[in-house]
Design goal:
The structure holds two protein chains of two kinds.
Chain A (H helix, E strand, L loop, with lengths): L4 E3 L2 E5 L4 E6 L7 E6 L6 E6 L5 E4 L2 E5 L5 E6 L8 E11 L2 E6 L3 E6 L1
Parallel strand pairs in A: 2-11
Antiparallel strand pairs in A: 1-3, 3-8, 4-5, 4-9, 6-7, 7-8, 9-10, 9-11
Chain B lengths: L4 E3 L2 E4 L5 E6 L6 E7 L6 E7 L2 E5 L6 E5 L5 E5 L8 E8 L10 E2 L3 E5 L1
Parallel strand pairs in B: 2-11
Antiparallel strand pairs in B: 1-3, 3-8, 4-5, 4-9, 5-6, 7-8, 9-10, 9-11
Classes of the chains: A mainly beta, B mainly beta.
């Protein structure tokens, strides 16, 4: 099915470094969601974005809703070992009164202490 | 805590058997989604229910079925299990109105191991 393109696919970084990842689509979304999934656990919603150009922070995480509405970015500042996991973007598509969710391919983050 | 509850957390069974996974959505959420995630793979959408009715079907095998009950909890039934059905199964719910409209909240998952 349809997927959102995320890049990079994986990242190995040193503790303390900043991280940037993005998510792109060929079509417009009105909402962007960012999730983190740790091994064996369920995805946890980190940030939800509702408006083009919106910049939202959650602690060391900052996400932006792209102006074109076809992309979104997630930044993590001063990474720590517990940031390890897979980060997914997702876009809900309204359909028949509910939503269909399109997911990104994920960015796998590893932090070296 | 997302508010979505899944049981059991772990399940080990043999090929050919049948299991039932249970999900309670967040209070007030009418939509329930089921996803399968095999090792190191992405989330594969299986099926969605909204207020007791099936709304969308993804890559769900005929051996699998689901339902949503009047109290909005949902069950995913997996039968004639095969080794390849070993995976994490996630339930998620989303509100249609209100503060978190459009957001999707996941449970902690049920890890199924078929031996």
């Amino acid at each position: 099915g349809q997927q959102l393109n995320q890049s990079p696919q994986s990242m190995f970084i040193q503790e303390g470094e900043d991280v940037s990842m993005n998510c792109t689509s060929s079509s417009i979304f009105n909402t962007w969601l960012w999730y983190k999934q740790e091994p064996g656990e369920g995805p946890v919603l980190l940030i939800a974005l509702y408006k083009a150009g919106e910049l939202t922070s959650n602690g060391r995480l900052t996400a932006q809703f792209g102006i074109t509405r076809k992309d979104s970015f997630l930044n993590i500042s001063a990474s720590i070992p517990s940031d390890v996991g897979i980060y997914f973007c997702a876009g809900p598509r309204p359909t028949s009164g509910t939503y269909k969710y399109i997911f990104g391919t994920g960015t796998r983050l590893k932090v070296l202490a | 805590d997302s508010g979505v509850t899944q049981t059991p957390k772990h399940l080990i069974t043999a090929t050919g058997q049948r299991v039932t996974l249970r999900c309670s959505p967040r209070s007030g959420d009418l939509s329930v989604y089921w996803y399968q995630q095999s090792l190191d793979q992405g989330l594969q959408f299986l099926i969605q229910y909204y207020n007791g009715e099936e709304r969308a079907k993804g890559n769900i095998l005929e051996r699998f079925s689901a339902q949503q009950f009047p109290d909005l909890h949902s069950e995913l039934n997996l039968s004639s299990l095969e080794l390849g059905d070993s995976a994490l199964y996630f339930c998620a719910s989303s509100p249609r109105t209100g503060k978190n409209t459009g957001e999707l909240f996941f449970g902690e998952g049920s890890r199924l191991t078929v031996l």
